[in-house]
Amino acid sequence: QVQLVESGGGLVQAGGSLRLTCGVSGGTFNSYTMGWFRQAPGKEREFVAVTGWTGGRYYADSVKGRVTISRDGAKNTVLLQMNSLKPEDTAVYYCAAAKENGRYDFWGQGTQVTVSS
User: Fold this and answer.
1) Measuring CA to CA, which residue among 38, 12, 20 is closest to residue 80?
2) CA proximity to 36, closest of 28, 24, 27
3) Among 73, 80, 88, 74, which residue's Cα sits nearest to residue 36?
4) Distance between CA atoms of 13 and 4, rounded to whole angstroms?
């Protein structure tokens, strides 16, 4: 069974930075598409960033230029470096893994990011 554990969330002032880490155990990490999603209070969960098993990356328009997703196959981790944070980035951030079918079947428990103005 694939397990994902996020860490690195916290409280930061607007303009600050945070780096989220997702540790993955079980399965074949290097074959997974790994994504980050977020859910703010009262809102639907939304896509933030994704990196495929080939290393390609794609970002939501709302974070493009401020966020970088990366993966380390040796450590089975996915990082989300977030800079120039805004209050509207406040949300619970989730890491998710998709196998060849492209469906995100595996999710972490989430980590809270709060950006104060």
Assistant:
1) 20
2) 24
3) 80
4) 27
**3-state SS, one letter per residue, for 73-105:** CCCCEEEEEECCCCHHHCEEEEEEEECCCCCEE
Candidates 47, 59, 56, 52; CA nearest to 29 is 52
Instruction: Classify burial at 107, counting beta carbons within 10 Å of its beta carbon; exposed 0-12, middle 13-18, buried 19 or more.
Output: middle
**Residue 53: Cβ within 10 Å count:** 17
How much is the pLDDT for 19?
Answer: 98
Q: Are strands 67-72 and 10-13 parallel, antiparallel or unpaired?
A: unpaired
- Once rounded to an integer, what is the mean pLDDT over residues 84-88? 98
CB 24 within 8 A of CB 4: yes
How would residue 106 be classed by pLDDT, with cut points 50, 70 and 90? very high
CB atoms inside a 10 Å sphere around CB 34: 26
